[in-house]
Automatic annotation (TrEMBL):
<protein>
    <submittedName>
        <fullName>Uncharacterized protein</fullName>
    </submittedName>
</protein>
<feature type="compositionally biased region" description="Basic and acidic residues">
    <location>
        <begin position="7"/>
        <end position="22"/>
    </location>
</feature>
<feature type="region of interest" description="Disordered">
    <location>
        <begin position="1"/>
        <end position="57"/>
    </location>
</feature>
Amino acid sequence: MTSPMKAETKSREVKNANERRSQQHLRGAIDNSNRHCIVPSLHAPPPLTPTHASVAS
């Protein structure tokens, strides 16, 4: 049987891990939304060199 003290620290560790994971998830979501905003504007103008079109055809 584990002592209450050990159980306490265990639950605190789990809580910290969960918080860290949710923080990373939030940060990833923000990065993704930023990327979605930036990428279309980068790819909106047609490429200056038509090499991609010639390769595709």
